Fold:
Amino acid sequence: MVAVKEEKNLEEGLLKLKNQNEASGCRITACVILSTFVAICGSFSFGVSVGYTSGAEVGMMKDMGLSIAEFSAFGSFSTLGATFGALFSGKMAIMLGRKGTMWVSDILCITGWLCIAFAKDVLWLNIGRFSSGIGLGLISYVVPVYVAEITPKHVRGTFTFSNQLLQNCGLAMVYFCGNFINWRMMALLGALPCFIQGIGLFFVPESPRWLAKAGTDKELENSLLRLRGRDADISSEASEIQVMTKMLESDSKSSFSDLLQRKYRHTLVVGIGLMLIQQFSGSTAVLCYANTIFRKAGFSVAIGSTLLGIFVVPKAMIGLILVDKWGRRPLLLTSASGMCLFCMFIGLAFTLQKMQLLLELTPVFTFICVTLYIASYAIGVGGLPWVIMSEVFPMNIKVTAGSIVTLASWSSSSIVTYAFNFLFEWSTQGTFYIFGAVGGAALVFIWFLVPETKGLSLEEIQLSLIREPDEINHT
Structure:
């Protein structure tokens, strides 16, 4: 009874602090911009890794004498390593802090890229790919979490979505430069952003939310002062973070059993569901095997990859601009609708090709639909699941829940990456009809279950989601 009364008092205090906090913490300082840039540098390496097999395939197989099976194994070691890294991402982010985890990921990624760049045999290629994959598993969790925890709420979506923008920059480099840059040089370029991040982390503050959980109030205040400006009044924001952290820690500790509590089920379903939608709607398959799709459709691989390389960065800017104007739900619904529609169109194009109809139009039509599919993916489903994941989980379950969600993303990515070639051989049109059906199911899931988090502080989001199941039970 006392615990319930204490929690109620803490909630009331948090709601009062919400009103006091409207005017504070709204400045976008140079420190916030620098900290975000340093954090998302690792995402460039992420993008390079996703598209690396597409750009390096011909040169690597020729130079190293690899068979198709050996090269396929090399490609799969990245998602295997990322799945392994995802298991420890949340726990490491709590034990070492957000910055410490990024340093570990930098070491693993740099080691991996250097092993690939200077490899003399297939063993070192696979070791490098696996090492960088572990680093990517850590990056995919800790970067959006760190950015969400340091930015003011009115621009949090935009700054967190910039993670997706840098991934697309890395992807664009591979698509565009893979036609004329040696695969070893591309590996070195993939390592460069990790060097920049490793150095830059010495000059940026730790996440204030993590510092609050670690019990270092003075360091929490210093971090907020650096992020909001030395002359800013950070007392309300600091109090809000401390009150919410205290409320959650008095409730429970981070463990798997906590996720089974009724009040956390909604957030867990949303987090895992969005990651499964992201992967099973075909995104990884299209990005990794775009050249295969173009070749099957009869479109020039060189022209297709070059145009995609030019296109992927501008299309990522659309989501960056709209995420804090439209909100998360409208962008997700628009994105899922586009992915569903254009997958169906790609399936239709291959159906017409199989029926020997409109053969002269099929290659161009397929290229246009693949491009528009990737654009639809980029404005919402590509980056927003990571944004929402970084927002909805309270600090006391963020370790376990974040690790499970990241694991769901990478394990499902491995399934799709492995199964795509088999599905494509089974039925080119049927593969995309399946992806389109998943996109249609995604619309229903997003409409009924995904909350809008635009314009709310992390504490406000988490308090509303925690209270929601109890309010439903009492009605």
Q: What stands out?
A: Residues 19 and 236 are 9 Å apart (CA to CA). The radius of gyration is 22 Å. Confidence is low (pLDDT under 50) at residues 1-7, 14-25, 469-475.
